[in-house]
Amino acid sequence: MAALSSSSPSAAVRSWRTAFLTLRDETLTSPRLATGGGATSTSSSSIPQLLQHLIFSNSHSFISAAPELPPHEVTSDLLFLLELVATRCHVEQDMTATFSYTSHLIRDVWRRVSFEINSSSWTLILDSFAKMLDYLFNKLTPIATADSSANAATISPVMDCLELIRCLISIQVNKFSPAENAQLVKFLLRVIVGSHATLISSSYSITNQIRSAEMGKRGPKYSSLWEFQTVAFAMLADTVSRAGSSIPADVWKSIIEVFRKVMDFLASKSLPVENNIMSRFYSSLLHCLHLVLMDPKCSLADHVAGFVAALKMFFTYGVSSRMQFRYPDAGHQEKKLHITSESSLEEPKRVDCSPYKPPHLRRKDTLNMKQKKSWNPQSSSDCESSTVEFTSSDSDYSDSDGLVQDSETVRNSKVRVAAIVCIQDLCQADSKSFTTQWTLLLPSSDVLKPRKFEANLMTCLLYDPYLKVRITSASALAVILDGPSSIFLQVAEYKGSSKFGSFTALSSSLGQILMQLHTGILYLIQRETHSRLLASLFKILMLLLSSTPYSRMPGELLPTVIVCLQTRISEGFSSKSDQSGLLVAAISCLTAALSTSPSLQVREMLLKEISAGLLETDENSGVLFTLVQYSKELTSPNICFETLQALKAVAHNYPNIMFACWEQVSTIVYNLLAVATPEVPARPWKGHSGDTAGYIGEKLITAAVKVLDDSLRALSGFKGTEDLLDDKVTPFTYDCIRMKKVSSAPSYELDSMEIMNSEDKACQSGIEQWCEAIEKHMPLILWHPSPMVRGASVTCFAGITSSVFFSLVKEKQDFIFSTLINASVCDEVTSVRSAACRAIGVISSFPQVSQSAEILDKFIRAVEINTRDSLVSVRITASWALANICDSIGHCDADFPSQDLCADSPSITILTECALRLTKDGDKIKSNAVRALGNLARFVNYTCLSGACDKPVDQAGLSVKTRNNEVFTSRNDMKGIHGSASNSFHPPSMRISSWLERMVQAFISCVTTGNVKMVVDYGGRNLCSLGTSREGYINSSAMRGVWFWHLRAPSVFSILLLLLRDSSNFKIRIQAAAALAVPASIHDYGKSFPDVIQGLEHIIENLDSDQISAPSGFKYRIVLEKQLTSTMLHVLALASSTDHEPLKDFLVKKASFLEEWLKMLCSSLGETNTHSDFENKSLGAQKIEMISEAIRSLIEIYKGRKHDSLVQKLEKLDNSIQ
């Protein structure tokens, strides 16, 4: 061997080649050697002995000769050696040393030669090492109780094999194909499972390791297998982070299953082991799990509970044995939530007697060993290292932690951080399954009394000594409360803190959790000083405010939140750099608290503040005072903007408060607008400081205008509600009337009684404020250079009420009219025109406006122009205004029934043509168009021509009069713009017939392509009225219209019956049933009457068999049943007039069902509701009349059919309800 070492390089090369050629010859020509059978007849040496003689004894010379050989030759020879050694894994000989020598030789050669590895060779390498590691794992198990020297001799080759794979990966990392990455993952999973099985079968339990660590020893003899798994999981993490997107789904599922097996094993042990080796293993394991859970490619529903149970054990890892807390004294703990009381809880203090050292000295003290790499998902550990070391950055040793931290403390804290991050990943990956684990991870009682074995995310946030753990806990809580959980929490209900029995309802559990979260978060907000953590706390509180149903929580909870925030805002924040950002976050939370459902307790708190005069004094002790003060902070636009948002929330949710706040609001808005006058061009602000002139941007000005808008709406009594059922209300559906709440309207629920008792005062106040706004504020914003500001200013007019508007002097009314018309037609910005159309839609619904042909003429012109705009948003608001105008015209006709609206008038022509054109637009526009057509069809006499109508017609075609019987005429400019609409080449009668046909066709088309509910509601109900003849207009034109209706009516009724029977949407079915009740006579139903009555009977008879898929279906099912009852009674009352014999036969056939159904209705007449006695009597009388008419109609039919027994039964039933 000495001679070989001193020989020339060429001799070493020859020795390499001779040795490997001899090895090939010996193994290939000796089958027993090749298969591991032992010595041949020519040689008594086994494979290990042969390798020792030919290869390992000359390893030093071979290593030096390798660079002189071609790389492909070196690669081929070493792969042959590796494959040969791997094939010996099944023999009884001890191959441990051979594996170690082989690994060392390949590793040393790899350092000097670049291997040429292709796909097939990579497969061979992984397969060979897998066999070798399986052999070594199996060899470890039988010697579990043997001496440690034998065990160490087996552990060392295990680590050598894995380190060699790690080195080979480093040279191929950028060359792997997706298939090779999948092979690598399968290999790592195989060796992890093998080593895990060895650890489980070991006679050394995890408690032995704890005892060994406490005695200051290295640990049990199998601790190196934990180090092996540490490296294996680190390699798996590198592979997943690098090539996770290319890993197949089946391999990904295997990864999840392996992690579940390992985590279940850890969860089966009482506590995780706290020593250096195990903390490194936990960190590597949890970091890899984090990467896997970030983008899972398979369902985690079956694994969430298991992962959560294991991860929760690490919440206090390294804390209980090394850190001491002084928890809040139980004597200071309050039973209820009184966060602002003076007897507040003491903050946990950390015990440390060491002298103070600055962070850079602490780092030098703890990192005096070799430099280690920090934990980074993208970094790979040194392939020479046998363990994975994780260290911290300077921030881990910051003063804010208040401890002299050593490397072990940092590692333990990183385990806690990693576990919480995995909890966050689980929530993001499968939020639905994760909600079942809330009771394990969130507190349900005594959040400020932590117990050692009841750790949860809030205890980590409150009491963990490590800042990053607290920040990570806050982040995890924010993720849990975000997303679908906000809907999930709506069922929460707080029922007190008393002990529950063996079963606690979900709503009660969620209520307890929300209460404890509020308690803990508010506690920290009052005391925390770290800016980053404070920002996270405000984010959590914001999510709590948006998710908590405060109406089912303790009444004092929301006021407590508001007072806590106001106190913290007033106190300010110690961090100068983040003070502005934290103030913005705190005020945003205050805005969210004021924006939640109005609270009676909050209202009383604000009224008490006003009555005490705190708003006018300089005492910094009230919510309103704080908002007024910070809204004047023009040097801090972000703070000013958020404060204006809070004031807007007060005006919206607590409108009665604005009577006392108007002076301050008006002053704030005016001062802000005066600074940003058009003479000083405004520009978007980005947090400027210093002089306020010239930088007040459009966003801030717009916020101020919106505060003005909401304040005026509150003072005017704007409610924005409408009766959804309108004139479809019958005695049976009266109880189902529900009011539609418009989001832009203030909330008057708490003030309803006061508003009713002081409407005159509110109206008078609204007039004064509107006059002030028009004179003082509007000139500064209506012609502002910013479109956003102009749009917000025009929107203000959409909140004015009819009573206030017509109490203004004529000059101000004309100012509003001209402003809206000019903005809708002349403004170049679409958003401003859209806002103007919305305001036109509101004002056109005022009764007095609809009586002015001149104003309606201008409104129609402006709206029609905007219905042709290229932007959908403009066409939506324009179509909405168009439908409102049509509805207003109809109500005007209802107020003056003797003045029928003629279809050939220019204005009706424009409205009809415009609405028909819009039925071919998008869904929302189509819905408004159908609503417009429905209103026109209901109120305009499409069977009448102006020549046949003996009444005065103005130039706009609207023969409506004012209260003084003065006829208004419109301007002639309408003819210039829309002359084509009125000067058609076709005769009026032909054009009207065309309209009727197009209306029905539009209805049929929209049912299949648009908003079915809206189409059926307005189109079906109102188009059915087309067939209803109007008294006094039976002429040739009328006959043509009626003829066309009867020609197309079967199609309309067939669609309505189909929707009523088959639609899965109960609202659509309700509207279809209401539409079927519109025709007033059999003549109006035409040939469809038998189909209608038979279809209704079939639906009512089979109503109980309907499947209800959603919980809301139960509520609408009741409404549908009542509407069907009303419609069926209506058509039965008309049935006696029919001469359709098959229909009479059908009614005789269904006599038994109809009798029972009528008996059921009669028996329900005695039921009372929440209405007054007068209303109950009136409704009862109307119900009796409808039932009696239906019974008498059936009696007449049965008499004609000679069914005397049926006649007697029905007569007796009719007499019983009289």
From TrEMBL:
Matching Gene3D superfamilies: Leucine-rich Repeat Variant
Biased composition (Polar residues): 374-391
Lineage: Eukaryota, Viridiplantae, Streptophyta, Embryophyta, Tracheophyta
One Pfam family here: DUF4042
Organism: Morella rubra (Chinese bayberry)
Signal peptide annotation: none
Region (Disordered): 343-403
This protein's name: HEAT repeat-containing protein 6
Location of the DUF4042 domain: 414-598
